[in-house]
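Re-run requested by the PI after the first attempt was lost when the workstation crashed. Everything re-entered from the original request form. Ligand of interest: flavin-adenine dinucleotide.
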Amino acid sequence: MEMKTDVLIIGAGPTGLALAVQCIRYGIDFTIIDERAGTTPFSRAIGVQARTLEIYDQIGLADELISLGHAAEKVKFLKDGAVRGEADLSELGTGLSPYPFVLLVEQGLHEKLLYRYVTDHGRDVAWRHRLRSFGERDEGIAASVLDADGRELTISAKYLVGCDGAKSSVRHGLGLTFEGDTVERLFYVADVVLDWPHGHDALQINLGENTLTAFFPLKGENRWRLVGTFPEGHKKDEADVPYEEIEAQIEHDMGVKLDIEKVNWFSVYNVHSRAVNAFSKGRCFVAGDAAHIHTPAGAQGMNTGIQDGYNLAWKLALVLNGQANEGLLATYNEERLRNAKNLLSTTDRIFEFAASDEWFVSFVRNNIFPFVFGTALKFDVIKNEIFSIVSQIGISYAERTLSGGSGEFGVKAGDRLPWFRHEGRSIYESVREPSFHLLVFGDRNTSGDLLAAAGSPVKIATRSMPLSEEAKKAFGCERPFAALVRPDNYIGWLSDDLSAEALSAYLARF
Ligand SMILES: Cc1cc2nc3c(=O)[nH]c(=O)nc-3n(C[C@H](O)[C@H](O)[C@H](O)COP(=O)(O)OP(=O)(O)OC[C@H]3O[C@@H](n4cnc5c(N)ncnc54)[C@H](O)[C@@H]3O)c2cc1C
């Protein structure tokens, strides 16, 4: 049997499903397959970052996802059964994002929400379909897929995106490398019902001598996600560790007996820190865990995969619609590869601090950090810096091919559109539509004229806005200026030269 599609997505984990959602949003013809029978029943990744919620806000999914979980309000540091310090996390990103917190929600529920968006739009995942092999054919890709009954199906596609997880057969098929390290220690994760004296209102981190255990409150009475590591030298294979060993390790590290009433799920796994050498080859792309895997430090993995697809979708849409040349697709690798490498070094550094055996690091972590962290977060400059990194709103594509313009600003072309309230409304309400947006901040009604004079093959929604104090502050500019915002809400072009020539020179890049 043969079928045809424009974009073939391999894998319906969070990365593949979020990409399918974006394809629907941009009207791209796509097919998505997964060898599983349905979305994951497990909680797996529970931290959803502000940047992901901003993306979901554009498609009307943010509020519902928030209702399925809750914001991490507070963190408490425990040592030897006592609270050694705490910090307020609820307003960490106030003024920086409409979602100034980390949302805790189970991956199983998150995937179901994305999947429902897909089916509500009349599309479906081809479950129990496994990619066997693929190759380039007639200016496209031919993929051999086995369906649920073991029959072979050939799917011809213009482009293929491997969202097929850490063991990605797409990555292997493309011959991409996956360089990096495997963390020495064995990790465990368990979803439990636990009644204890420390309350259910905060993320709790137990500081052991050379181990670290995190307790994340999940929605539901006394429900917790536990994540931790066995000490170095614990040499068992992932499959050989029974749950009892995890509980014994936690009790040993905490120095107290825990009243764990029920274990809903547990898993023991090795953690790797690796990234591909390229996010694309020919007409094929990789995204999510297929392209980068890291320690769970900072809850970055799933969020990064969702943003990979968000970066790629609008570029595929423009190229498939004939509005941009194929060179635009090369910017996916340019922008996301550098981000993946930066991410690996950040998560490695956080993990090193969190779990190092080294005497000095362990002394600072256990005896100084819990006392000073809460105080440090009272300083805006520290709070903003931490939030920008962890929430992923600080990811920037500045000085890359798609970033241009001129003038002095507090932000750069290539940064995410800063969030601010403009005339009483969130500026993000002006850029929901899946297209470019030309925002002209000045006194005159100039946006339409500027665009008409520049001439553009792509659809650009225009808006002239007063140069409010909020806009001046957000962009760090006192003069009239224009920002061309990409469909993924990054600033493509930022300029105080409001001439049509300047804008058309930028548009000619793709
Ligand atoms: C136990 C555990 C705990 C975790 N905890 C966290 C956490 O706390 N925070 C965090 O950020 N991350 C965590 N992660 C990682 C997080 O779950 C991943 O980053 C995320 O799932 C990546 O999404 P993905 O869609 O890229 O890949 P996956 O979720 O792995 O999805 C890949 C999909 O591709 C399908 N597939 C693979 N090969 C084929 C094929 N040949 N044909 C068809 N389909 C195929 C698979 O069936 C799967 O559905 C955890 C992971 C595990 C295993």
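Saved to the shared folder this time. The domain at 404-507 is CATH 3.40.30.120 (Glutaredoxin).
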